[in-house]
Amino acid sequence: MQWKLRLILEELYKAPRNPGDIAGKTGLPRYEVLASFHVLEALGFVTTIYSRGTHRVYKLTDLGEKLLQALRLGSFEIDIRTEHQTAESMATSNSPVAVEA
Q: Does CATH place domain 2-100 in 1.10.10.10?
């Protein structure tokens, strides 16, 4: 699955795109790309820059570029923290990398 995510992010790194563009360029099924965009947007890795009806164009955020760099390196850990976590629960985390969502 990691390689699919990297394909999607690599295409977005080149230029803003819609899910159909990504599916066509990567050969991934459109439904997988669309589902990935929903998750990536919710986590703050991509953002919508154009929306009209069901047509949306996305671009990578700064956080998305950091994720792509980590995927290129091939070895990483991500600890995603929400604003609902307490300072105590964040202080007891064992993960060395924190990404604020």
A: yes
